[in-house]
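User: Sequence recovery, please. Input:
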């Protein structure tokens, strides 16, 4: 008889960090951990390609987590009374000259400073975590869920490719004109 296959999930340290980030409250219904048993839930289920990274984890009470099942429901974070601005959990694009310069997710807050987990624009892997003031966060493009965030990046990528192709076509046209005048 073979050994039972152990299900591997996020480490205990990552689960505690997620719960601490969410202030030990269910991000779906807002109930505090003092009134319910809390669990760490995957925002995008592992079966759908979600990872065990903290950016894909949220705190849920057992009732909400069981009711959710394998459906994809974005946590609201809105029920936390000490977070009226609701930035934690949002996805963000920091812009420069109208283009995405950095992308990330707001993973925590200490007073007026937010922690942003940055992700590579090339392959989406998590990079560094940097602090930002609330005034800097308010200037960035914020997204309620992962899908909106990715769609905005995809739209910009397509626009950049169109501009690149138009510039290449213009350069080819100029070279052709120069050759014909020689």
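Assistant: Recovered sequence (182 residues):
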């Amino acid at each position: 008889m073979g050994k039972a296959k152990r299900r591997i999930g996020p480490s205990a340290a990552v689960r505690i960090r997620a719960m601490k980030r969410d202030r030990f409250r269910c991000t779906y219904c807002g109930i505090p951990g003092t009134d319910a048993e809390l669990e760490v839930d995957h925002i995008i289920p592992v079966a759908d390609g979600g990872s065990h990274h903290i950016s894909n984890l949220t705190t849920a009470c057992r009732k909400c987590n069981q009711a959710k099942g394998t459906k994809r429901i974005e946590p609201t974070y809105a029920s936390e009374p000490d977070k009226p601005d609701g930035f934690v959990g949002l996805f963000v694009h920091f812009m420069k000259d109208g283009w995405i310069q950095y992308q990330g997710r707001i993973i925590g807050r200490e007073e007026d400073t937010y922690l942003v987990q940055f992700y590579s624009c090339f392959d989406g892997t998590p990079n560094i975590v940097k602090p930002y003031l609330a005034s800097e966060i308010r200037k960035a493009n914020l997204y309620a869920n992962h899908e909106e965030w990715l769609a905005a990046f995809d739209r910009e990528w397509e626009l950049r490719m169109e501009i690149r192709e138009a510039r290449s076509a213009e350069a080819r046209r100029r070279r052709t004109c120069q050759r014909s005048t020689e």
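The chain has two domains: 8-83, 85-182.
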